[in-house]
Amino acid sequence: MTVSVVAAHAVSRTFVMPAGSVRALRHVSLSVQPGEYVSVVGPSGCGKSTLLHLLGCIDVPTAGSVVMDDVDVSTLTDSARSALRLRRIGFVFQRFFLLPMLTAWENVELPQAEAGVSRAERRERTRELLEYVGLSARASHRPAELSGGEMQRVAIARALANRPGLLLADEPTGELDQATGAQIVSLFDRLNADGTALVIVTHDPEVAARAARTVRMRDGEIVEETTRTCS
Amino acid sequence: MRRALAFAWLRLRREPGRMLLGVIGVTAIGALLFDMLLLSNGLLVSFRERLDRSGFDVRVIASESAVIAGPPIDGVSAKLNELEREPSIAAVQRVRAASADMAGHPSTRHVAVAGVDLNAPVPWTLLEGSPPLHPQIAPAPLVINRNLARAFHLTVGSPVVLNGRCGDASRPLPLDATVAGIAEFQNDAADALTAATSSQAVAALCGERGDVADMLLVRSNPAAGGPDAAAAAIRAAFPALHALTNEQIVERFSRVEFSYFRQLSSVLTTVTLFFGLLLITVLLTVSVNQQLGEIAALRALGLSRARVMAGVLCESALLIGFGGIAAVPIGGLLSRWLDAILRSMPGIPADARFFVFTLHALEIHALLLVIGAVLAAVYPMRLVATLPIAATLRREVVS
Questions:
Q1: Where are the domains of chain A?
Q2: What is the model's pLDDT at position B107?
């Protein structure tokens, strides 16, 4: 039996708002295997991002559990969850969230420095990652000097910096034009082919179609799961 | 922490306007704070230095009231004879304070006159002329300060007539005197007209027959116990007199007269510090609020809560550190200017200082700034510490 990279068991997430409670997720279970490529689709407000946040350990479920390495992450301290995210999970955001005062190189180097990677190793890994995303020539550029697609590629390189087993992407092509989005999707394909497990939340059916498994959500529940067979 | 500091520096550089505003604000506030600290202790330090410079370390007066404001000491000559035999006492000087008018052009001027024993150590430093050793009365040898010499165009050897304005005399008593020397007197105000002569001449000027003095200045013998032993011997010999060492005078001054200064500077220091904290807190809070998405993303990438809090603290420390360092020379210059204004007040001794630099003041300044940096960062640190990562990322996308 394969050990999953992350698994959500009957998770629910309720947000308490001034106008009343909102149940964003209802008893959702999802398991991601090593090297798997999963897309999560559904209408706005159906709970896709909430599920991604739970899988990425940046939020904890109101009920149920998220298990990573046989550990229920909601039992971990905030600091332990931070350490888990730093070393085991990569995040790619719709709005990139690169640090504007750092160069592309420094942005990619940042998570490695935080993880205590040696200077020599950092240099090697950063060079390798920028080459991987095709931005070696733009290493010394700051985000303001990069295009949207380039910024997202730097963000992907940053997410991969500490060799995570799981990469989570929330609408990674949401801010990009179709052609640039296609480049990013190709990059994800390549990443997955190289063995990284991917969970992508998207509105774009073309992006979702690249995943081996597509999870469709509605009103905080998984309503359909489809698995693409290799052609 | 080094990474947090480097990161904070990059964040500050990203917004040079904010950094400049913060540093200028802290510099201005820090300069005022530094001046308050110099003021809070400066007068006391200066007073202490002036007492020590006088060459006398015990002062004897007849009452517990302020120095030279109470009744005179009677039978001084006999007391001096007895005190001079004390092994803990090296020398004793008597001082009788009087006042006189000096007629001159364009008007008659008021002169403070001190009567002393010319053969004992004197409380002035002779600049011109020779020490007057003979206590004759006609003409009396007179030592004057520079202001008096300048005001009446007097030089060594000039004849002078003083008209006594003291004692029980119903009309001014004239005293012929000759300028024997020009000197710098301790405790002289910047504009004071001061003269000194023998105690016999002052008695004649004031029409006094008694053997009195307002104060005895004592130089203790360091080999026989110093000022404390001398003061104890005086108290034992003359229980009705009050002998105070320089240490005790400073302590009394600090407790009574100086407490107003200290209270004033404490209040101003607190207010100044409060506004400094407010400025940095506002700047940091605005900055944090503008970067919530970025901070949430960093947290999502795995930066710990302590790490992002350390970043805010470092930003605060850098702003306050740069401003605080710049505040020292600026505060120093400002204090010199303020000192000159205060010293020009009438009646202030020319060598008194209100703002005195001490290492202790610098240490307190640094300590207050460190505390300030921490306190200013508390609220923005709390903001980043309690930042809900997922909700913030969601809000950023929606906005």
A1: 6-102+165-227
A2: 78
pLDDT, tens digit (0-9, with 9 covering 90-100), for B259-310: 787 788 888 888 888 988 898 999 899 989 988 999 999 999 999 999 999 9
Q: Which of A222, A45, A154, A189 lies closest to B397, judged by CA?
A: A45
Task: Quote the CA–CA distance of A186 and A207 in Å, as a whole number.
Answer: 10
> Is the Cβ pair B390, A94 closer than 8 Å?
no
The model carries a pTM of 0.74
Q: Which of A215, A210, A213 is nearest to A183 (CA)?
A: A210
Residues sharing a CB contact under 8 Å with residue A128, sequence separation 6 or more, in sequence order:
none
What's the confidence (pLDDT) of residue B137?
67
Residue tagged 């903001």 (tokens) = B383
CATH code of domain A6-102+165-227: 3.40.50.300
Q: Which of B297, B302, B397 sits opposite A86 (nearest CB)?
A: B302
Name which of A79, A94, A97 is nearest B305 (Cβ-Cβ): A79
Asked if B297 reaches chain A (Cβ–Cβ under 8 Å), the answer is: yes
Tell me how far apart the terminal alpha carbons of chain A are, to the nearest angstrom: 25
* ipTM of predicted complex: 0.89
Yes or no, beta carbons of B10 and A101 under 8 Å apart: yes
Angle at A47 between CA A211 and CA A181, to 5 degrees: 40
